[in-house]
Amino acid sequence: MRINERMFHLRILCLLPLLGLSSCTYLLGKATRMGMFDKALGKNNRPGEAKLIGVIELVNPEQNYVLINCEQRQNLPAGTEIISQNADGTKAKLKVTPERKGNYITADIKEGLPQVRDLVLYQTKPG
Asked: Is residue 18's pLDDT more than 60?
């Protein structure tokens, strides 16, 4: 009889934190509806979304262009603005040109200093 009583207390002890967690999400939703937050926190503070295009393999600063190696053939029209980003977060703006060969595309450097091995991203949602 003593063991059953302990199990009962253990179950109640485990259920209390679960009830507290569920009430937190309930209160967040209620606060959002009342206008205390702009929108749900997860959606409001997200940066823009981007798609990985490829990696820079060659930078020609004299002629102001880069050569990008893509995993798959990309169907980006000429004039599309893309971004290169290196490991420390430095970004450069690029503009796709019509020249293509296999999985390689070229892009003109519009702003910044892209480097070899920078990731090239296409921003699908501005952020």
From this structure: yes
